[in-house]
Design goal:
alpha/beta, 255 residues, 8 helices, 15% strand, Rossmann fold, globular
Length: 255
Amino acid sequence: MGKRLDGRVAVITGGAGGIGAATGRLFCEEGARVVLADRDAAAMQAVAAEIRATVPGAALLDLVLDTAGEDAAARIIAETRRVFGPVEVLVNNAGIRAYEPLAEAKTETWHEILAVNLLSHAQLTRAALPDLRASGRGSIVNIASTHAVNPRPGLGQYDATKAAILSLTRTLAFEEAAHGIRVNAVCPGLTLTPFHVRRLGRGREDLAAERVDNCLLQRWADPREIAFPILWLASDEASYVTGATFMVDGGQKVL
């Protein structure tokens, strides 16, 4: 496989989670200089060590910080420029969940989930736009969810933020096309991340072998299977793609 992101500077938030980590590793394999940002210090340390051990010559900077913090966006961009140079690819992937029916949803929960799942994306995008515009071929990939268009009971706050990401993506695509920036969204389906392994309390291998009924392929996605569409959208291979929503869900049924 070639170096589809050779020399490009990419920032990935939620970089210590399943999809973020898989994307960071794949981007390093494809020649990018990668900045991973996440607030989970232990998970970030493990992910960064694994990438450096398995990807020879990986150019990687790992930042431990809360992307929802007011000054986080400016710090991420400043550190990226200091170590690698201007940002050319931005993957907004940070996200948290809240398990509250909307009738019981607390104001503080709304504030927290909006800060991480939506405002952090908007703030980091705003901070990165001068670099992305200057590159002439900037790419933003926002990670939403299939539940942005197929909401569920009990996760209304999460699903609402993911729907908002799709709207944010389309508006940015309109506004930034004149600057050569492409903006797209990926909606992952059921993905076997460390979060789900912990949540379900079962072994990863056991879950991976399990038949699931919510998609045509009848299995979980591996995070790397979500990372490949993100890579494609970030690369010049997708140079005529903007404002698009990619459903990477194994053929999930709309119930």
